[in-house]
Design a protein that fits this description.
The protein is about 35% helix and about 15% strand. By secondary structure, it is an alpha/beta fold. Strand 5 and strand 6 form a beta hairpin.
C-alpha cells in the first residue's frame, strides 16, 4: 500500500483533464498516486462554479479522505483556485486530526491560480471585463479562446503545443459570473502549507495579476517563481513534478 500522499490535479478553465497527463505521469514515476479532476464548466454552459465545487468535493475529495482516510495535496491551476478554495471545507489534516479522523488535505499548491474571497467572481478578478483573448458568446453561454496556443502554450514545443491547443474547449459564462459564498484556503490550518507557483512569462494571467492575488489574500504564501508561461505542466513537466514533490514533502514535515 502506498503511504505517500495522493496528489489531486485540477486543470484550469478551458482545459480538459488530459492536459495534466504529462505531470501526472512524472508524479507517478516518483511514487505518488494522482487523481485528475475534470471541470464540469468546460464546454458545458449549464454549469457554474458551485457545480465544480460540489463535484470536486463529492467525487474526489470526500471519497479519498472520508472513505479511504487518505492524505492528499491539491494542485490547482488558474481558475481551479475558485472551486478548490471552496471544496476543501472541513477537510484539512489539522481539522481532521483534532476530530480524531484519518486523512485530510496536507497543503495547497496554487499554480498561477486565482485566490478568491467570498463574493468574488472570476470576471471581477480579471478586472470586470473579459480579457482580449477571450470570446464570450451569450447565445451559446460559453466563452471561447481566440488563440489558445499563444495564450496558454507560448513556451510549449511543437507538436505538443498544437495538440494541446486543439484540446482547448470553451468555458461556461456562468463560471465567470457566479460568486462563492465561502472560501477556506486562508484558514489557520494551512498556515505554512500554502504554495503559490508564480509563472512570470504568463500570457493568460499576467504576473502583476498573480502578485495582486497573493497580496490581496491577506495570508502568507510561499511564492515560488517559475520562468514559464501559463502551462508548465506541458512545457516543463519533469521540472514541475520535482517542485510539486518538494512541496509535498515540506507539507508532510509540518505534521
Amino acid at each position: 500500500m502506498n503511504s505517500l500522499p495522493t496528489i489531486i490535479l485540477v486543470p484550469g478553465a478551458f482545459h480538459v483533464a488530459l492536459s495534466m497527463d504529462l505531470l501526472s505521469s512524472q508524479l507517478e514515476e516518483a511514487g505518488y498516486e494522482t487523481r485528475t479532476f475534470g471541470l464540469l464548466t468546460v464546454n458545458q454552459p449549464m454549469f457554474k462554479v458551485q457545480d465544480d465545487v460540489a463535484a470536486l468535493a463529492g467525487e474526489v475529495l470526500h471519497p479519498l479522505i472520508e472513505k479511504q482516510g487518505k492524505d492528499v495535496v491539491l494542485y490547482l491551476h488558474s481558475y481551479a483556485g475558485f472551486p478548490g478554495s471552496a471544496a476543501i471545507k472541513g477537510l484539512s489534516k489539522t481539522e481532521r486530526l483534532a476530530a480524531g479522523k484519518r486523512g485530510g488535505i496536507l497543503g495547497l499548491v496554487y499554480q498561477s491560480a486565482f485566490i478568491p474571497k467570498p463574493g468574488d467572481t472570476l470576471l471581477q478578478m480579471i478586472g470586470g471585463t473579459y480579457a482580449p483573448w477571450q470570446d464570450p458568446n451569450t447565445q451559446t453561454g460559453l466563452v471561447g479562446v481566440i488563440d489558445p496556443k499563444a495564450t496558454f502554450y507560448a513556451d510549449v514545443m511543437e507538436p505538443l503545443a498544437t495538440k494541446a491547443a486543439d484540446r482547448i474547449r470553451p468555458q461556461s459564462l456562468l463560471s465567470f459570473n457566479t460568486a462563492l459564498s465561502q472560501t477556506f484556503c486562508g484558514i489557520p490550518a494551512y498556515n505554512d502549507r500554502r504554495t503559490y507557483l508564480h509563472t512570470n512569462q504568463d500570457q493568460a494571467l499576467p504576473p502583476f495579476a498573480q502578485d495582486a492575488f497573493v497580496a490581496g489574500s491577506g495570508v502568507k504564501w510561499d511564492v515560488q517563481k517559475l520562468v514559464t508561461s501559463h502551462s508548465p505542466f506541458l512545457s516543463e513537466p519533469k521540472q514541475l513534478a520535482a517542485i510539486v514533490v518538494a512541496n509535498v514533502k515540506a507539507f508532510v514535515a509540518t505534521y
